[in-house]
Amino acid sequence: MISEWNDLQTILAIAAAGTLSGAARSLGVNQSTVSRRLQAIETGLNRPVFTRTPDGRLEPNEAGGRLIEAAQRVRETVAEANSDLRTIPAPVRLASCEVLSKEYAAPALAAWSVETGLPSDLTIYSTLFEMPEDSFDIIVTPLESAPEDMVGRRIGDLRWGLYATPDYLANQPFDPKAASLSGHRVVHPSGTLVDIAACKWFCALGGTAVFSSSSTLTQRDVAETGAGIAFLPSSIVPAGSPLLRLETELDLPVTEIWMVARRAVMAQPRVAAFLRWSGSHFRSTETPLKRVG
Asked: Global pTM?
């Protein structure tokens, strides 16, 4: 039997983190407390709600999945009630990565606040694949990394380029007709960036990886030292940068950028209002709201 909100928070934290230690960090308690709570929950329900995978992670079973759905509904109801009772409106909470924040999320929130006078909040994550579900209302993300069961619209594209310094190219000339980067030093993406199709494309070109990072800004900084060729969003290479964009006959990929939210969250008045406003703000690339997961 579930007896209090803390039980549901514990289940949600474990589901989001996949480990007891990760859930403990997000809840601000120690691991033994989370373990004790989970044991009490499963004892009260007379059934387990998580199973352990071969790699040691905890995944919800069928009963756990139903419990998580119920916990999410309760969390959203509580959040909306708190929002309605506040004298100061709750902010619209956007989450994004460092690159998309600068190009899309931050300018949009600034314009929203100026036009409506309503507050907003932007959280930057190094990976959009591992965000706690209760930490955001809306995500600005590459379409392919949007969590399941999201609804949203395309708001733009992220365009990429191959970059290197003049000193690197003087020592290792680049052939625009080359079909690979064989013989070149390259600066690779790492972490969850490698799950993005554009980054997979770059890694498949070959070359000798001399450095890798889960941050595109760090990749840029390393490439600026002359370490090798990097594949970067064009928006993060400013005028005056020591990097040169390489002319190439390769068909460079383009990444679709979407603004998405869960259906239940979209029903909240402040979120619905922002999404309606964003449809006009991003009208040059607007597509109808649709399910993306």
From this structure: 0.65
